[in-house]
């Protein structure tokens, strides 16, 4: 699926049936990571993002945005993992949010090297 998810620009969302993980891709220059997390989690839970518990109950949204925002000249990727609303969430500095049910992170889909 491409386009708008919960009124936030998310370029793609992919459901990995074998792991139960959902992965979305977003443009870090246009969409803050915290907004992409909320939009993707709302899509996964089939609710409006305003119905979710506030993201700040699990992670500081401003700190999350600062950690993964586009940085020129940096080497390597940054992954931030946390749990929220009984889902394991990983956000990467290459613009990918991975969400899986429970508290186990879907490591297989965190590398960013898989094709979308």
From TrEMBL:
<protein>
    <recommendedName>
        <fullName>Halobacterial output domain-containing protein</fullName>
    </recommendedName>
</protein>
<dbReference type="Pfam" id="PF18545">
    <property type="entry name" value="HalOD1"/>
</dbReference>
<dbReference type="InterPro" id="IPR040624">
    <property type="entry name" value="HalOD1"/>
</dbReference>
<feature type="domain" description="Halobacterial output">
    <location>
        <begin position="30"/>
        <end position="100"/>
    </location>
</feature>
């Amino acid at each position: 699926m491409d386009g708008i998810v919960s009124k936030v620009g998310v370029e793609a969302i992919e459901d990995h049936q074998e792991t139960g993980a959902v992965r979305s891709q977003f443009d870090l220059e246009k969409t803050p990571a915290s907004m992409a997390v909320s939009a993707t989690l709302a899509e996964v839970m089939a609710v409006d993002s305003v119905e979710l518990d506030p993201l700040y109950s699990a992670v500081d949204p401003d700190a999350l945005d600062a950690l993964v925002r586009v940085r020129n000249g940096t080497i390597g990727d940054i992954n931030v993992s946390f749990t929220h609303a009984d889902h394991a969430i990983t956000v990467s500095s290459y613009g990918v949010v991975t969400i899986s049910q429970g508290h186990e992170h879907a490591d297989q889909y965190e590398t960013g090297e898989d094709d979308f």
